[in-house]
Amino acid sequence: MSNAHTDVLLAGAIAAFTVDLFVYPLDTLKTRFQSPDFKKVYTTPHGASPIPIINRAVLFRGLYQGIGSVIIATVPSSGAFFTTYEFSKLHLNRLNESLPSSLPQPVVHAAASSIAELVSCFILTPAEVLKQNAQVVSNPARSSSSSQSTSLFPKNATMAALRKFNRPSQLWRGYTALAARNLPFTAMHFPLFEHLKSRLMKRRERLHPSRKPTLLERGLVTSLAAGTAGSIAAVITTPIDVVKTRIMLSASDQPNPHTLFESSDGVKVSTAKRKSGFQIGRDVLRDQGFRGLWRGGALRGAWTFLGSGLYLGAYDMGRIWLGQRRDGKKQDDEGIS
Q1: From CA 20, how far away is CA 12, in angstroms rounded?
Q2: Rounded distance between C-alpha atoms, residue 142 and residue 160, angstroms
Q3: pLDDT digits (tens, 9 = 90+) for 213-239
Q4: Which of 113, 180, 189, 324 has the least CB density, counted as fewest CB within 10 Å?
Q5: What is the DSSP string of 158-201?
Q6: Four-residue CA torsion sign, 48, 54, 57, 58
Q7: Residue 251's CB: how many other CB atoms inside 10 A?
Q8: What is the Cα–Cα distance from 67 to 127, expressed in whole angstroms?
């Protein structure tokens, strides 16, 4: 079967587009739960009770805010990830075979996926920063007759988020945080995914030894293995995701008026220092306790199960289908000639 470069790119694009449409609302909810302004924006006081109640009308409004920037960036970043992953896995396996003592396959898969993740994160970071800032953009006040509207596509959420940034370089401020979250996630996800996929395929072959697996069966096996592995890795890396969300939501670096002073030439300069990921994690732990570092973990696990399953399932089916189509066309051309 031919796995040409264009097959990998097209399959990655199909997978990315599929996931963005189906699981984006869950990702928006996760971002809002992890936002430092969650209590102020998405909850309301509940009488004398110290525990506020969630304002569902606000929380569930505009669940697709910011999706445009992600769709634009996810297609090339996914193509770059899968191309780099397949290339790295191929060459690392060749290198592994030449070693006196070969490395276990999970190590090879982890290394290949980590290299691919670094490339993908560089492309995805600006869209991820814009997306998360757009996800928490509040709609302007509406008339009483429409105040309960839950429009999925409020206008200009992405543009409102973009106006917060003064320099293009600010859009890459979350790269380190994104890579710091995705590298351990990917290093756990892909070895476990490859292992589960291999086990499930072997089980399927034992049950039906005389019949080759169909394209749909391959897709279902890949989806189940990817979803299970992804949800486990997602829950484990939730504290890093909380810190990453906080960093990206503050990427525009709009200064606090209390931290400004006027220089001799009349320019206002901020004295506030950007916090490191460690300091942000410590602040969350101090303000919200240990549970604060795991906020949104259940949602992250759920949407990653769906997202990873759809993502890698669609990718694998797309890659196999495109390869079969290419091989069939090649055989037809050879028959004509």
Answers
A1: 12
A2: 17
A3: 888 888 899 999 999 999 999 999 999
A4: 324
A5: HHHHHTT-SSGGGGGTTHHHHHHHHHHHHHHHHHHHHHHHHHHH
A6: positive
A7: 24
A8: 9
Question: Is the Cβ–Cβ distance between 294 and 238 less than 8 Å?
Answer: yes
Q: How far is the C-alpha of 6 from the C-alpha of 12, rounded, in Å?
A: 10
Q: CA separation (Å) from 331 to 1, 212, 323, 334, 337?
A: 12, 21, 12, 5, 10
Please give the DSSP secondary-structure letter assigned to residue 137. P
Contact 62, 102 (CB under 8 A): no
Beta strands in the chain (DSSP E): 43-46, 49-54, 260-262, 268-270
Q: 215 — phi, psi (to 5°)?
A: -60, -40
Residue type, 8: V
Average pLDDT, consecutive stretches of 10 residues, N- to C-terminus, the chain (337 residues): 59 71 88 89 78 86 86 80 88 88 85 91 90 79 42 65 83 87 89 92 87 87 94 95 90 52 46 73 90 91 90 82 70 50
Burial class, 134, CB count within 10 angstroms (exposed 0-12 / middle 13-18 / buried 19+): buried
Give the tokens for residue 155.
Answer: 């206008």
Measured between alpha carbons, how far is 330 from 325 in angstroms, rounded to an integer?
Answer: 9
CB 246 within 8 A of CB 276: no
- Tokens 């000639």 appear where? 337
* Amino acid in the structure at residue 280: I
Distance, in Å, from the CA atom of 95 to the CA atom of 101, rounded to the nearest integer, reads 11
Tokens describing residue 86:
């397949």
Using CA atoms in the order 197, 203, 204, 206, what is the torsion angle rounded to 10 degrees? 150
pTM equals 0.73
Identify which of 153, 128, 138, 115 has the alpha carbon closest to the alpha carbon of residue 72: 128
Give the span between the Cα atoms of 19 and 224, in whole angstroms.
15
Q: How far apart are CA 95 and CA 98, in angstroms?
A: 5
Give the separation between CA 63 and CA 24, rounded to whole angstroms: 7
What is the CB neighbour count within 10 angstroms for residue 168? 8
